[in-house]
Amino acid sequence: MPLPALPRLGFVGAGRLARCLAKGFARAGYPVATVTARSPDSAGRLAGSLPLCQAVADAQAVVDSSDLVFLAVPDDSIGTIANNLTFDMRDGRSVALVHCSGAASVEVLASARAHGVSIGGFHPLYLFSGDEADLERISGCSVTIEARDDLAQRLEALARSLGCEILTLAGAQRLLYHGAAHYAASFALAALAEAADVWRTLGFDDDQTLRALLPMLAGTAEAARAKGLPDALAGPVSRGDAVVLERQLAAFEALGGDHATLYALLTRRALSLARSRTRPPASIDAMTEAVEAVLERSLARGASAT
Ligand SMILES: NC(=O)c1ccc[n+]([C@@H]2O[C@H](COP(=O)([O-])OP(=O)(O)OC[C@H]3O[C@@H](n4cnc5c(N)ncnc54)[C@H](OP(=O)(O)O)[C@@H]3O)[C@@H](O)[C@H]2O)c1
């Protein structure tokens, strides 16, 4: 039997993600029926901020009172919670159970599917702060959905109600999908941390580094949006300044540690972007040779260290 027209939504978890989704869906007109969390206080706070929503004792009470349940809990708890749920499917009742993790397989909900429950994944590509501002900022982001048939349509409608774009995913690709997304999140922070490490050797403190580099990062994101990755490229690689690049690589090698290896690996990626331009820089082969020489030396050092 298809899911009812406007499903009653339930949330297990009242944390950063649940607060934004529950309020966003409620604002879009969806009934959010029940919420639970580890502590009654956080469930009560979220329920109190929503029209006609009740804080309930546990995940089972959410399942018993909702048509579509979001498990918005830490990834490691999703399977345990799902495995302890029971589902009353009498009278043709439909229930759907969805988690919001990017990394966890939808198969962690398989025990529910065995009871006739539709299962799926609803992963917003957004870093939730837990603040009210999330409600505005999530619009324009993407939500990756893994689900079938009616549930897929239902989740797509929910994503659209937040103003989000939709990506669809098959289960086997999930780890690569989630891992690669880190390049736009934690790895951007790791790259800034590397810049701060290097600039510290020049006497700049971390606050100066962030104030100097965050506007550059924002400008880079804007350029990528406006021009695409190859044409947003800046720096010696984009201009074909092979001599500057060689001297920079030597300076990073002189710093020791793995600074030159990281710099050379990222430059290798920048070079492939430059190569994909309609008119790559004339010195692209010379720059590639310089980078590969650093990587070979780094590999040789690694091999001799083992
Ligand atoms: N945060 C993000 O930016 C983000 C982005 C995309 C996807 N996600 C995914 O969203 C999910 C939730 O992440 P989050 O960042 O919102 O986590 P969070 O802020 O740490 O909140 C977790 C919530 O789960 C509740 N909880 C923990 N164990 C529970 C249990 N056994 N039973 C019932 N409730 C329990 C906590 O209760 P208390 O409030 O009482 O502690 C809390 O409300 C994860 O799967 C995560 O991968 C998060």
Q: What would a concise description of this structure say?
A:
This protein is of the alpha/beta class. The chain has helices at 16-27, 40-48, 59-65, 75-83, 110-113, 134-137, 149-161, 174-181, 186-200, 206-227, 229-232, 236-239, 242-255, 259-275, 284-305, and strands spanning 9-12, 32-36, 54-55, 68-71, 96-99, 118-124, 142-146, 165-168.
Helix fraction bin: 40-55%
Q: In whole angstroms, how far apart are the ends?
A: 61 Å
Q: Enumerate how many helices there are, as a single number.
A: 15
- CATH-derived architecture of the largest domain: 3-Layer(aba) Sandwich
The rough form would be described as elongated
| Structural domain count | 2
Fraction in beta strands: 5-15%
Q: Give the overall average pLDDT.
A: 95
CATH class of the largest domain: Alpha Beta
Cα-based radius of gyration, to the nearest Å = 24 Å
What ligand species are in this complex?
NADP nicotinamide-adenine-dinucleotide phosphate
Q: How would you name the CATH homologous superfamily of the largest domain?
A: NAD(P)-binding Rossmann-like Domain
Query: In terms of per-residue confidence, which ranges show pLDDT below 50 for 5 or more consecutive residues?
Result: none
**Order of adjacent strands in the largest pleated sheet:** 3-2-1-4-5-6-7-8
**How does the major sheet shape up?**
8 strands, mixed
Order of helices and strands: EHEHEHEHEHEHEHEHHHHHHHH
